[in-house]
Amino acid sequence: MAGRTRIRIPYHPYHPYSYNTRKKGARGVLRLVVRRLLQLIPTLLGLSVLLFLWLNRLPGGPASAILGERATEAEVARINRALGLDQPLHVQYGRFLKRIVELDLGTSTQTGQPVWDEFVLRFPATVELSLAAILIAVAVGIPLGYLAARRRGGWLDVAAVSGSLVGICIPVFFLALILKGVFAVNLGLFPTFGRLTTGVDATSVTGFAVLDGVLTGEFDASWDAVMHLVLPALALSSIPLAVIVRMTRASVLEVLGEDYVRTAESKGLERRTVRGRHILRNALLPVVTAVGLLTGSLLSGAVLTESVFSFGGIGSFIRTAIDARDYPVLVGFIMFIAMVYVLINLLVDLAYSVIDPRVRVH
Amino acid sequence: MPLLDVDELTVTFGGRGRRADRGRDRDRKPTEAAGPTEAAGPAEDTSVRAAGPAGPAEDTSVRAAGPAGPAGGNAVRAVNGVSFSVDEGQVVGLVGESGCGKSVTSLALMGLLPRKGATLGGRADFEGADLLAMGPRRIRDLRGSKLAMIFQDPLSSLNPVVPIGVQVTEILKRHRGMKGEAARKEAAQLLDRVGIPDPDRRLREYPHQLSGGMRQRALIAMAVACAPRLLIADEPTTALDVTIQAQILELLKELVDQEGTALLMITHDLGVVAGLCDQVNVLYAGKVVESSGRRELFAHPTHPYTHGLLGSIPRLDAPRGEPLNPIRGSINDQIAWADGCAFAPRCDRYEMGCLTGTPELTEPREAGHQARCVNPVLATTEVPA
Amino acid sequence: MSLATTKTSKIDRLAELTAKKETSSGASLWREAFRRLRGSKMAIIGAVVIAAFVVVAIVGPWLAPYSPTAQTWRGEVLANQGEFVGARGENWFGLDHLGRDMFSRMLVGARQTLLVGVVSMLIGLVLGALVGAVSGAAATLGGRAGQRLDDVVMRVTDIMLALPSLLLAVSIAAVLGQSLTTVMIAVGVVQIPIFARLLRGSMLAQGGKDYVLAARSLGIRKRRIVLTQIMPNSLSPVIVQATLSLATAIIEAAALSYLGLGNPDPAIPEWGVMLSQAQRFFDNAPMMSMYPAVAIIITALGFTLLGEAMREALDPKLRG
Predict the structure, then answer these.
(1) Domain containing residue A247: CATH number
(2) Strand B4-13 and strand B76-86: pairing?
(3) What chains are in contact with B, requiring at least 3 Cβ pairs below 8 Å?
(4) I need a labelling partner for C113 at 20 to 30 A (CA). Which of B229, B304, C130, C222 fits?
(5) CA-to-CA distance for C157 and C131, rounded, in angstroms?
(6) In angstroms, rounded to a whole number, what is the distance separating the alpha carbons of residues C40 and B20?
(7) Which chains touch A (3 or more CB pairs under 8 A)?
(8) C180-207 vs C231-258: helix axis angle to the nearest 10?
(9) What is the pLDDT of residue C306?
């Protein structure tokens, strides 16, 4: 109920007209973070139970995983005792959990190194690849989706929509193979495998090859790393790209029908103001969520893409771990992925509460 | 010369080359909301092409409400030769029920109809220049500065993710070249002028934090920011509480009086017309059926539709148990204007003459009081008001 | 007399003019959706592709000119030295790395691929819908206890969704061993949380509608409301998802094969397995990968097109 008179009502915290309903700020955000991190705990606990049961169900159990299929009974029993597998399940689970909390994910049966160290070593490569892929998807997908919506029914729209439909139907590993076959093997435009050409002198600082080159001034190495990234990133970006194009298009179409866009037009604003402030700022809200979730799901595609290009990230490592039945690595990876996924969700929520004023942080 | 002179405005949706939307158009409900905005929203450069009075398409002139025939003509003529004028500082009403084409008329004048899909005909001279023939750049310059509009639903008409302040200052920056602190101060003054308490704080708030009445006030502040010559108000009070409605109307009247702004009031509410308008145009099925001064219209409604509208208002002083007098049928019961009077199926007074071609606007009662009717209501005794 | 004539002719004339437009009848959601589906190019292309695929899957084994497993031309292919045989008169699609006729293998393989798609979709659909229905019913009409149950169920699906689908499939495959059944179960299980969430969300949305309130105020039993009112109105997104998930199932199955978890039995050709075997020779014999890959893509596209067209046809926002 707006005041009918034009008397100014001084600010008073409990006055209904002047109570500032917009309370956000750093404290609210912090509370959200803490709450979401607490929510993470039951999810990870549930997951650890599942993983523990899974490990126990594995054919032959951990002993044969460690010793191989041809282990003798006595050896298995010895290992089982050494691993505490002769103890009751809940005791075993307790120890399993304790080790996970201590980030002791066991030792890789492939390399003999601690799983955690292997991840730390390979994680930057996967992050680099995933970021590059999502960057391509966002940079191409959002403008394309916007233009498709604006020219609805035009050739660009038809091309974008059918392209994205085909995009989600191409198996990622096959697309990677094609890209590699055409652009790397036949045309020789890009390297066929790895993160850096052997012999290129690169100092590792952060583990991110592109960034390292810039930091150390070895721009040749940076460029080399970029060239190695192009094809895998393109292949990996296909599904996020398709999803982003379609989401942006649908969302822009919906916003175009909104009254406030008509209001903005009725104010005679510049086209770019209408586009940026009134259309895109609203239309991209759902896209932000999608980008977050897609980033989480990229790790799945990374396993396939990295193995085609022998990229040397976690994905390649997992691929060989699957072949070698390297269970400690798989368990660690699943816990790790779940954590990453939930953290990304948290980031998305935070981003959302910042860009959409209607979402209150309680 | 009038400020705005609309001559034979026609708006046709669909028709040629819109195969993709064919099925959808046919199913469209006769609500105004299903009009142009839903179809595609305002096109990026809302260029408006005057196609001239579309002669050959006359046989497809089915109104928005009526489902077009199954085979051909999916073109829908929402506005079908509307003429009226607005003088400097005058308040003109455009009255009709939902689906009669009044909102489409206002959007056509503002150049806000989608470029694709809507074909315009006729002229609309504003300060001597035809709004319909104007290039997108020119009409964009006019909109918000000399020509402003207020919409029906204040919540959905405000951008939910942009603070009120930005939404007010952006128009000052665009048309009055103001910057930074100066624009902010002016915006605060504007909010103060439309009766929003504590404007400095409101500028930082978002639409959802304002009450319905305050949102409409904020929209009005944006519309009057550049002291427009003509303000179009499309049912500005429909979405508001009754108590707020009167306040908003009062405010509009005050602002219009202060600045000498002409106001085109689009409404279905005869109460609003009675309280505000100097001149009234009654629309039915995309055509003006009666046009007159306010007093004359209320005293002597001449077209049976207007007559029925006034007669259908329940009266407090009527004896208990007296039946209400609605107009029978709905706007869906109509025939094409080309065949006769669109109102005939709902009219108690229709005769054979009503069903042969479009009736002309005549002045059956007195000069300046036009009605489009073959068999107008002339007897004063029948007037219920 | 003359007055009467004018009056009837007046009414006739009005009737004639008003009859020009047909009044739209209130068709049911499903009938109207079907009508719109028939008018959609996407739906027609999708349906044609799917029909062709199903026909090949059924009659393929009888059409195949050669045995799909016999290594008839073994001597002509030297995979190790990069010598392959492409398309030729007797072998339309050429030979695979073991000297088997690719065309016959493609025809026979369609059946396995369809089987993988349908079975894993059904696993996901049935189990997911069951979980979703219980959760949705509990959340809408189950009171406080129901809401708690719903909370728990949704947390569990959260956990499942938090896992990359491929890894979930890999974990399942690790327990069950390497076989076509494993692939179907793995791909199906991945879909369970998706179906569950979808149906629950849809039921929750329907549960808040006025007609449910009306039914409750009429004193209709809750179980009956759920079964006769809420469920039928909540199913359309699930049906759309089922169609779309046939596409994802086929693609995911191919990916699992690529990771070495597919059917190890060479006697039964399957497109995904064929692709994963052929890709090793991609540099020398790209066409060998192309046939199964393109077949997978087109089939997946068919299901996707039909699913998307259904989604559009069923979207209440687009209804007239």
Answers:
(1) 1.10.3720.10
(2) antiparallel
(3) A, C
(4) C130
(5) 9
(6) 9
(7) B, C
(8) 150
(9) 92
CA A180, chain centre distance (Å): 23
| B23 → closest Cβ in C14, C21, C39 | C39
Joined tokens for residue A125: 């490569």
- Give the pair of three-digit tokens for residue B300: 């002597």
Residue in A closest to B159 by C-alpha: A260
CATH 3.30.420.40 fits C32-318, yes or no: no
**Amino acid letter, B288:** V
Residue B160 Cα to chain centre, angstroms: 25
pLDDT of residue C50: 93
| Domain B4-146+226-371 sits in CATH 1.10.10.10 | no
Residue A228, judged by CB atoms within 10 A of its CB (0-12, 13-18, 19+), counts as buried
Low-confidence ranges of chain B (pLDDT < 70): 15-74, 380-385
Note down the domain range covering A35.
19-101
Taking an 8 Å cut-off on Cβ atoms, the answer to whether C318 and B24 are in contact is: yes
Whether B349 and chain C come into contact, CB under 8 Å, resolves to no
The one-character DSSP state at A181 is I
User: Which of B25, B131, B189, B198 should be substituted to probe chain A, the one whose Cβ sees the most A Cβ atoms within 10 Å?
Assistant: B198
Distance, CA of B20 to CA of A152 (rounded, Å): 10
**Nearest CA to CA, how far is C13 from chain B (Å)?**
7
The mean pLDDT of chain A is: 79
Give the C-alpha separation, B17 to A120, whole Å: 59
Same structural domain, A271 and A168: yes
Position A25 scores a pLDDT of: 55
Closest chain B residue by Cα to residue A154: B20
Task: Report the share of chain A in percent with pLDDT over 70.
Answer: 84
Cβ–Cβ contacts within 10 Å for residue A124, how many? 19
Asked if residue A120 belongs to a domain, the reply is yes
